[in-house]
Amino acid sequence: MSKQKANDPAGKSSSRRDFLKKSFAAAVSVPLSAGEAAVQDAHGQPQESPNLKPPNIVIIIADQFRGDFVGANGRNPMGVTPNLDAMAERGVTMQNAVTNQPLCSPSRACLFTGRYATETGMWKLPPGVELDRSLPTLASILRSHGYTANYIGKWHLAPIGPDGKTGLGFVEPKNRGGFLDLWQASNVIELTSHPYEGAIWDGDGKPMHFKDVYRVDYLTDLAVYFLKQRHDKPFLLVLSQLEPHFQNDVNAFLPPRGYTERYQNPFAPEDLRFFPGDWQAQLPGYYGDIKRIDESVGTVLKTLAEENLEDNTIVLFISDHGCHFRTRNTEYKRSPHESSIHIPLIVQGPGLNLSRKVGEVVSMVDVTPTLLDAVGIRAPASMKGQSFLPLIRQPKGYANWRSEAFVQISASMVARALRTDQWTYCVVDPSANGDRDYHSTHYQEYQMYNLATDRHQLLNLAGRKDPPHLVHYGGDRPLPEVAAHLRERLIARMVEAGEEAPQIDPARFYP
User: Fold this and answer.
1) Quick count: other Cβ atoms within 10 Å of Cβ 498?
2) Average pLDDT, rounded, for the chain
3) The predicted structure's pLDDT at residue 292
4) pLDDT band at 474 (very low <50, low <70, confident <90, very high)
5) Comparing C-alpha atoms, which of 62, 146, 162 is closest to residue 377?
6) What are phi and psi of 186, to 5 degrees?
7) How many CA atoms within 13 Å lie on the side-chain side of 466?
8) Distances, alpha carbon 223 to alpha carbons 23, 116, 233, 240, in Å
9) What is the DSSP string of 240-291?
10) Number of neighbouring beta carbons within 10 Å of residue 252
């Protein structure tokens, strides 16, 4: 990564190496007790851990990274993700991973709590909402089992003042979701930085300024420095990048200098080609961002290998949501379409290096239970997600897995959706306000797509009564019968998420 100088937080010039050392001065370690040395997974199988220490966990979060832009998923020929492709080849890639809320803050709340956004308090972007601090999180649970919990980058889960400005940067410890060890982050980093300058804050509230170094590289180097320290305790490290999210104040994707030029006239995903818009102009920058994120992943993986941590560290790569480039609404996500909700989810590490692709539907709420399971810790019964390790390790796991995901949508509309292995089914309350109302009790059918025959979701089947033999539907049931079944399943998932069973009116007209 870049070797350019960074600004000293006190305003004095120093080398980036010196600055990183100062930034890390507060890190401490405590030895493991003998009782913490050995670990088994939740299925009774010993972990592949040469030093018998519980596995470390590294989570790399990208923002607005489409699942189909990972080359290993077989949907994009541009070759911009060689490191992620290698990670997928080595470990496990979940090919039908879905976010439960296609919006930054709610999605992250689902990720760290294993619960749905409306259960966490963070059902939309702040201000006006905040994460329920009483909920157990991945970080708080791991810390109670002897781990350190460390965070670098974008947070976006702390309260913001009514003025929309207070709380954008420094995050108080009580609002860190249990990440109480190393903290080098900004609550809303897209509003406290630009690609080549800005600030994040350390655990004591001191600003850490960077300048003339690309934002992805700066955060990656902080993670590298952390990994190179001595760790007597097992650790959880989250590296949360902003890219490939667009830079808010210029409404553009801003990769490293020269990267946009590399990707002029690139491959265009087929779901975009049908629609007007400015996605043609935005794709080169987006590809450049994707490339730099992949290079960051490569740097982290290389560091783990160099520090002899690779064999005892679980690494998980994920994104909070996708990006439809404003082809489905006036924003970049906040819709039930694959381009918005289908995310990359790749994991490698002890017990997981199986070179396997899993096609069952999993979702964001499943990640924390899965990681806890992988290190031998039982997830709290209050979590709504389920460990997907049985899908990876046990043949019978496929038969027992409910291959569907529940999606809540706010901001753009008050909507609920069900994503199965064949269908996307969405209902909406057209009278509700997505920034005011966290739920509704009366919805109407809005969208229904057959992913088996229309994976780009160009033909909305809601309200259609076509017979089964038509080419766009590969099934043996009339569409109204399919819709009725999906409606029933969606209501059941809403109730499971703590919502009142709603009335859903069937669509009466062709869209």
Assistant:
1) 12
2) 89
3) 98
4) low
5) 146
6) -130, 140
7) 14
8) 12, 29, 17, 10
9) E--TTSPBTTTTB---STTHHHHTSS----HHHHTS-SSHHHHHHHHHHHHH
10) 14
DSSP 8-state secondary structure symbol assigned to residue 14? -
Q: pLDDT, tens digit, for every residue of 4-25?
A: 333 333 333 334 444 444 444 3
CA distance 424 to 447: 8
Rounded to 5 degrees, what are φ and ψ at 19? -65, -45
DSSP-derived secondary structure for 78-103: S---HHHHHHHHHSEEEEEEE-SSSS
- Bridge-based pairing of strands 148-154 and 235-240 is parallel
Helix (H, G, I), strand (E, B) or coil at 313: strand
Q: What is the pLDDT of residues 331-376, one digit of tens each?
A: 889 899 999 999 999 999 999 999 999 999 999 999 999 999 999 9
Q: Which stretch of DSSP H or E encloses residue 367?
A: helix 367-374
Amino acid, single-letter form, for residue 506: P
Structure tokens that stand for 83 in this block: 């490191």
Q: How far apart are the first and last CA of the chain?
A: 50
Chain position carrying tokens 């806890």? 372
- 96 vs 46 pLDDT, higher one: 96
Q: Would you call 364 exposed, middle or buried from its count of C-beta atoms within 10 A (0-12, 13-18, 19+)?
A: buried
Q: Tokens representing 467?
A: 């017979």
Tokens of 145: 């089992």
DSSP string, 443-487: EEEEEEEETTT-TT--S--TT----TTSTT--SSS-HHHHHHHHH
Per residue, the 3-state secondary structure of 148-178, as one string, reads EEEEEEECCCCCCCCCCCCCCCCCCHHHCCC
